[in-house]
Design brief:
Strand order of the largest sheet: 3-2-1-4-5-6-7
Helix content: 40-55%
Largest sheet: 7 strands, parallel
Shape: globular
Order of helices and strands: EHEEHEHEHEHHHE
CATH topology: Rossmann fold
Structural class: alpha/beta
Strand content: 15-25%
CATH class: Alpha Beta
Mean pLDDT: 92
Low-confidence stretches: none
Number of domains: 1
Number of helices: 7
CATH architecture: 3-Layer(aba) Sandwich
Number of strands: 7
């Protein structure tokens, strides 16, 4: 492979936050591969390559990562962004819904983290960012999503502790509510209420996907060289506000 650019793999990189992350990494000088079950926005755009990847298939993940290293020589950055969610109350949640989300959001992250991490450990360096969520602290109606995103934070901390001395940094970004197609679909379907959400965000607005991408860009940069096992929240202040306004003193 004659291309001298560093190689970045973004799972779930064909649309939404993953696509925005891929575009930012291209701007940062990376050769970016969107690893996804669909080609999505990569069609007709030569700036980001695409490889079919089912993150829930452990053997398939290992094979795809081996092929990427064979073709491009190395993997410098891995962004574990692939994720799904199902909205349903706990008492009505089906086993199939629970299992489907866990397989993608947790088992999928483990599969790609392990496969990518092994190559990075062999080359003596690498940078991994796992995408978690503010929902990790709990979110009504999204039990499997919240549970898996909390687990991703634990996995991030563990990998960071294990691999720090071997040149591989592992951190996480936990976005708040981001203005994406999936978010707008939730509003249209009635599973999300924009007024309620904005009232809980101190910044009083949604995040743009590019703002999440900027945080990822920082974590994989040399400027974050001493950060390992950490979770960076990009949430407009959501996690630091209980949503209870300051009581106003009566006017004298």
């Amino acid at each position: 492979m004659s291309d001298s650019r560093r190689v970045a793999v973004v799972t779930g990189g064909a649309a939404g936050i993953g696509w925005s992350i891929g575009q930012r990494l291209v701007a940062d000088g990376y050769l970016v591969i969107a690893a996804d079950v669909v080609a999505g926005l990569t069609e007709g755009d030569s700036s980001i390559l695409w490889r079919e990847l089912d993150v829930t298939d452990h053997a398939h993940v290992s094979t795809v990562f081996d092929e990427i290293v064979t073709e491009f020589g190395r993997i410098d950055v891995l962004i574990n962004n692939a994720g799904i969610q199902r909205h349903r109350s706990l008492e009505e949640l089906t086993w199939s819904e629970w299992e489907t989300v866990v397989n993608v959001n947790l088992h999928g992250v483990f599969n790609t983290l392990q496969a990518g991490g092994r190559h990075m450990l062999a080359q003596g360096e690498g940078r991994i960012v796992n995408i978690s969520s503010v929902a990790a602290r709990g979110s009504a109606g999204r039990a499997p999503y919240a549970t898996t995103k909390a687990a991703v934070i634990g996995l991030t901390s563990t990998a960071g502790a294990e691999w720090a001395s071997r040149g591989v940094r592992v951190n996480a970004v936990a976005p708040g509510y981001v203005d994406t197609g999936v978010f707008r679909e939730g509003i249209a379907a009635g599973t999300l209420n924009i007024d309620t959400i904005l009232s809980r965000i101190p910044a009083k607005r949604l995040a743009d996907a590019s703002e999440v991408a900027a945080a990822v860009s920082f974590l994989v940069s040399d400027g974050a060289s001493y950060m390992n096992g950490q979770t960076l929240y990009v949430d407009g202040g959501f996690m630091v506000d209980y949503g209870i306004p300051l009581a106003k003193k009566p006017s004298s």
